[in-house]
Amino acid sequence: MKKVFNLILIYTVLTSNLFAQTTHLDIHYKVSFVEANKNEMHIDMIIQGVKPGEFTCKMPQWMPGYYQIMNYANYISDFQIKDENNNSISFKKPTINSWTINKKNSKKIIISYNIIATKKFVANNYVDTSRAYIIPCATFLYPENNLQISPTIQILKPNNWSTIVTGLATISNKSNYYKATNYDILFDSPILIGNLEELQPFYINDIKHRFIGYNLGNFNKEKFINDLAKVIKAGINIIGDIPYTEYTFIGIGPGRGGIEHLNNTTVSFDGRGLDTEDGLNSTMSFLAHEFFHNYNVKRIRPFELGPFNYDAGSKTNLLWVSEGLSVYYEYLMVKRSGIMTDKALLSSFNKNITTFENGPGKNFQSLTQASYFTWQDGPFGTAGPVKNKSISYYEKGPIVGLFLDFCIRHNTNNKKSLDDVMRYLYQTFYQIKNRGFTDAEFQMACELIAGTSLNDVFEYVYTAKPLDYSTYLGYGGLSLKLLDDKKFKLEPLLLMDKLQSEIYESWLH
Ligand SMILES: [Zn+2]
């Protein structure tokens, strides 16, 4: 039975590849902003090379990096389809986000629509007369079963907007033309247009890192770039490889949230608070988090996060690794850059522990469940049908990350750490196998580096068992104190043995 199933699977893969090779679709998008004053942008999608018969285009229902169904197709208006002679072509709408077109013998199809872009949020389009923030998943229809083709994009930029920034490749000799290797790359490449300000770039191993955005605000920009360069260097040092040819931080203006991509991140940013210690630490941690995702989730990724299911979402148990460990490393990157003090590092974990331990869901939901059910629970595990019975992997994830790190250090006489696990995953699964890892493979990677079974620590991943702080924090010379106001506080142990003090010192520096 298994063999037959495998054969069918191989046959399906072969035939779908065959279809992919025999399709010569040519797709070009024009994006214009005549009605920016009404918070709308206009898209013309010009398709050539479609075989006679029915043809389906779809809009993704979500964007990778923001694990919620966003119903992007609801923001489309004035939808119409014409042929090369300007005759209307009829279509059916089999689902909320798909359009099936009966093109008959037309050589060319032009699909035109407006996108209503009123939400100032990092995972939504926003357009007004000052700028446009374009989420490709929420903007560009794609040809069903043809995500491998390479579309081109032309931005008809209003004359009073100076700059376009995006991670997409430009087309030489054509201004404001871009090309994506395939739809996954297009959907991974937000676009910001307006009168943007670019800060002085910095280089690490000759690779350019840019910071550019809308309404960046007033702050000491030279110091900011110096600080950011140190933080990014600390992140690169964890993995030991730079996989992109250029990296760009794209500031979309005031607000909350950031979303990671392969060679850029879009971040809500207004430069406020950078002159205070807390503000600097939290902004640098936020930027470190989004940057570290270029490794942890974009390249070191759960098996289920690619190829993406743009309709239903890609459910995985492992967002606690992708998100929770990115929180863990955001703190360590800022600490290792020399910007954050020892006290501030411990205080970052204090906040996580206090929020997690005082939350109502800690005895009900595991990290794997929080990851899998985020699509219904909401990004922070506080909404949906299991309200008060869910947790956030952003809170518990970094605590279990700390347990794992200390446990690996303890079992290897402080010769190895969680950094070695991240490097192993990067080299084995991204560079060699070019695929994601499963739940079991993640645990196996940790155990390989630790040289021992880590079943005890992974119980805190797979179950809601209460966390044994004294054992795992003790490995690294830390203890946890409960204060009167239900707040928790990490403190170094008064007496440490040799290994504890070695782990404590090397973890801090
Ligand atoms: Zn994140």
Brief synopsis:
The protein contains 14 helices and 23 strands. It has helices at about 1-20, 185, 220-240, 275-290, 320-335, 340-360, 365-370, 375, 395-410, 420-430, 440-450, 455-460, 470-475, 500-509; strands at about 25-30, 40-50, 55-60, 75-85, 90-95, 100, 110-115, 125, 130-135, 140-145, 150-155, 165, 170, 175-180, 190-195, 195-200, 200-205, 205-215, 245-250, 260, 265, 480, 490.
How would you characterize the overall build of this protein?
About 35% of the residues lie in helices and about 20% in strands. The chain is α+β, with helices and mostly antiparallel strands and about 500 residues long. The strands form five sheets. The protein has a seven-stranded mixed sheet, with no helix packed on it. Strands 16, 17, 18, 19, 20 and 21 form a six-stranded mixed sheet that branches. Strands 5-6-3-10 form a four-stranded antiparallel sheet, with no helix packed on it. It is globular, with a radius of gyration of 24 Å. The model is unreliable at about 1-20 (pLDDT under 50). Bound molecules: zinc ion. Zinc ion binds near residues 289, 293, 323 and 326.
Helicity level: 25-40%
Biggest sheet, strands in spatial order?
4-7-2-1-11-14-13
What's the total number of strands?
23
Distance from N terminus to C terminus (CA atoms, Å) equals 55 Å
Q: Look at the helices and sheets and give the structural class.
A: alpha+beta
Bound molecules: zinc ion
Mean pLDDT figure = 94
Low-confidence stretches: 1-22
- Largest beta-sheet characterization: 7 strands, mixed
Share of β-strand residues: 15-25%
Anisotropy-based shape: globular
Number of helices: 14
Radius of gyration: 24 Å
